[in-house]
Amino acid sequence: MVTRARIAMLRAKAVRHAMDASVVPDVIRRPATPDLAHLVSSISFYRERGLGLAGFRHAAPLALPLLVNLGTPFRIALGRRPKSEDGRPSFAAGLFPGPVLIESDGRAECVQVDFTPLGAYRFYGGAVPDLTARIVGLDDVLGRAGESLAAQVAEAAGWQRRFEIVEDFVLRRAVHEPSPAIASALDMLWRSAGSTRIADIAADIGWSRKHFTRRFHNEIGVAPKMLAQMLRFHRACRLARSEAVDGWAAIAADAGYADQAHLARDFRVFCGETPTGWAARLERADPRLLRDAGG
Predict the structure, then answer these.
(1) What are the pLDDT digits (tens) for 22-48?
(2) pTM of the complete model
(3) Helix 224-241 crosses helix 260-271 at what angle (to 10 degrees)?
(4) Could you give the C-alpha distances from 289 to 62, 101, 237, 279, in angstroms and in order?
(5) 46, 219, 227, 289: least buried by Cβ within 10 Å?
């Protein structure tokens, strides 16, 4: 699957080992159009050119991907290293509060839609919880429509036409409206990077905490407390990449953690690594991570 960190690492690997621009993957990231802005964060076309076997790790992604495969399937596993039988052709996936490990043989090619949590509800409706912590074949979650989409994308000439096919497909199926209370709650959590108290959100919309948690899980696929933890973790990761905060103790405090040890525990849960290990892994992609890493 496509992330900016992964692209940067692939480019770094190409420079180190091949010194040949022909192996650098093609990546075209299409920002969401106004019609899609409330549904997806981006749509990407990605094509490798024989870079060789490579492994990648995504930490508790906040986007729900739909991927139409055109090349060698990625091998993907949740919370563990993928095995040979973990090859994933076209698929959809939900939120997963842990590390997603991916391997590619250098011949991957795909079109990927990254849904926002509310966009995923509008697209999949009540099927969103069925995707949580799972990777599901496109035909299994969308039936014949999924098979038809994969065929149309494969037969289309050029990434521009492929984007048009995928965007039209998403717009036609995104007909499920989330409850206004859950949409409002998700907005509060997102804007506060998970710092708003769950009890305060429930009180604001006039529900008991128990009722709010159940309704949120039914529409988004995870409990609001879990999503708040994931948002706080990603805020810490953004701070670590910035120059605004220096040192893991300061990052922990700024992101809303009780202390640095609390931050380190979340890194192990969501990323499967210590903050030090995470920073070392990404250092080639982002030299600003060369700080006094803790954990």
Answers:
(1) 567 788 888 888 899 989 999 999 988
(2) 0.86
(3) 110
(4) 21, 21, 10, 6
(5) 289
